[in-house]
Amino acid sequence: MDREQLYRLDLNLLLAFDALMAECSVTRAAERMSVGQPAMSASLSRLRRFFDDPLLVREDRSLVPTTRALQLIEPLRDALDLVESTIRSGRRFDPGADHRQFTLMASDYVLLILLGPLLAELEVEAPNLRFTVRPIAADFGEQVSRSQLDLLIFPDELVPEDLQASSEKLFTDRLVCAVDRDHPEIGERITEEQFRTLPYVSFAGTSLRTISELRFRELGIDRPIEIGTQSFVIQPFMLRGTRLMALLHERLGRYFAERAGIRLLDPPFTIGTMTESMFWSPRAETDPAHRWLRNRVARAAAALQP
């Protein structure tokens, strides 16, 4: 392909291609780009002519990418990311005036302890910024590498070694046992036997391994889960009036101890601490707005540390 052919392809068509591949729907791609469906259909027609390929074909009642389209997705997204980061790196960022949408991924524990208070501050400090916080998904690494996330906040110990991302450690926490404040069987401390045999409630919201599972494996403990929850935050409220035990992040446990009527106890084993870190695509490294966001998250995390 020579430069004269490239002159026929404008940047908006590449943005349309990215939206179409992400949504596999002309209607949803049009909504994503805030254009009408006829305009998106016209863009798809132009893309098909340019690449001499249908790009999206109907399979049953859905549209699916062709082999050629699948080959194009990654390099074209990389090119768009590079263009975007190049343009943004040369701009100044004014949080009090600029408009920007940020997408973060974090657990509800991190949202409650770290991001919730920070976002409340930013509502005043940066009133034109908009934030979306997604729950942790199994494909978080792919979303970071494709710049579909601005920030991932996740335990450092659970991130795969081959994750292609920049990172910064934010804060540490430890795991503690939590039981009903008036638990009939537990005194001043929890014994090893009680730890192993009391019915156990734990987070089981994704297929991903949790920090408690990692620590159990390190200790050689096989701890079955009697009740699995879709949320870290709901666990303290499952304990009142039961024989259940949970292993909670200490910050989360202290936040809810009084309201949930629970007691926090040291585990009968030495369990390692955990470190929450933030991860982002290296392409965003020099983006002034992204750098400002990272600094604000890091400052909020530093305030959590004793």
Automatic annotation (TrEMBL):
GO terms for molecular function: DNA binding; DNA-binding transcription factor activity. PROSITE patterns: HTH_LYSR. It comes from the Bacteria. CDD domains: PBP2_Nitroaromatics_like. Coiled coil: none annotated. Residues 9-66 form the HTH lysR-type domain. Keywords: DNA-binding, Transcription, Transcription regulation. The keyword Thylakoid does not apply. PANTHER family: HTH-TYPE TRANSCRIPTIONAL REGULATOR LEUO-RELATED, TRANSCRIPTIONAL REGULATORY PROTEIN. Belongs to the LysR transcriptional regulatory family. This is DNA-binding transcriptional LysR family regulator. It comes from Amycolatopsis endophytica.
